[in-house]
Design goal:
alpha/beta; Rossmann fold; four-stranded parallel beta sheet
Length: 98
């Protein structure tokens, strides 16, 4: 029996979140939504997902702050991360968080 992969999807736009969540679930993934950075960090404190999809522009804690939390946490440091954002100006590298 195959293990169902879990994705933490961090996105504050409910339409975007629902669209991606539906497609990922149809593909067989278990998707945990986080609609702000605080919710993302709370989830990351409780479990280690197989993948994190992260929006940079979120309320409470932004994606950069969530990325900082991930990089500083040894149990999360090797979790694959995809950053999706409409912000084309921000330059984020993981080296600045290590």
């Amino acid at each position: 029996m195959c293990k169902v992969r879990t994705i933490l999807y961090c996105e504050d736009d409910p339409v975007v979140l629902m669209a991606y969540r539906n497609q990922l679930q149809k593909a067989g993934y278990h998707v945990i939504p986080a609609q702000d950075g605080l919710e993302a960090i709370k989830n990351l404190s409780m479990f280690v997902p197989d993948l994190v999809v992260l929006d940079l522009m979120m309320p409470k804690f932004n994606g950069e702050e969530v990325l900082h939390f991930i990089c500083k946490n040894p149990s999360l440091a090797k979790v694959p991360l995809v950053i999706l954002s409409s912000n084309s100006v921000m330059d984020v590298t993981t080296e600045q968080f290590l």
